[in-house]
């Protein structure tokens, strides 16, 4: 093959590769608003990024103390409870607590936790970094698991709010897919049913 022909083919191939690279780069940027829309629809955008600017973790307000109470309500054949029922924390301080769930049924169950807050305005000031409520959870028959909840009380919480209650209701998902949540078991510790806390 003549050298001129090879050079022409190489130039055409280079142009095609450059166009492909540009299209892939533009496609990557186009995905950002798409993912943002999906996150807004599914509620995933409530997950707070663990950087100091957003969480305020680097700016703890040591002049204030907020009492945080924890509550749990099961809606299936299991027991569900916070390992600790209350604690005091400063706004901006990183807090980690655990909830324990035991499946008393003789079958595997898929469930989902739904949070609620009191007073209602506290919901906008409690920023969760990690929570088992972000996804459905699989509990095997007779299994006990502990799930961490990591959050920060925003420093913008009104000063008159001295107590915040974080409550979860844990529902069974009828027809929940065991396969869909079977691999998403990170962040929880497992124990035999009946192990004490």
UniProtKB/TrEMBL annotation:
The entry's keywords: Copper, Membrane, Signal-anchor, Transmembrane, Transmembrane helix
Membrane topology, from the record: Single-pass type II membrane protein
Function: Exerts its effect at some terminal stage of cytochrome c oxidase synthesis, probably by being involved in the insertion of the copper B into subunit I.
InterPro entries attached to this UniProt entry: CtaG/Cox11_dom_sf, Cyt_c_oxidase_assmbl_CtaG
Classification via Pfam families: CtaG_Cox11
Superkingdom of source: Bacteria
Lineage, broadest ranks: Bacteria, Pseudomonadati, Pseudomonadota, Betaproteobacteria, Burkholderiales
Keyword Repeat among UniProt keywords: no
Protein family according to the UniProt entry: Belongs to the COX11/CtaG family.
GO molecular function, one term: copper ion binding
The name this protein goes by in its record: Cytochrome c oxidase assembly protein CtaG
Subcellular location: Cell inner membrane
GO cellular component: plasma membrane
Record-annotated membrane-spanning stretches: 12-35
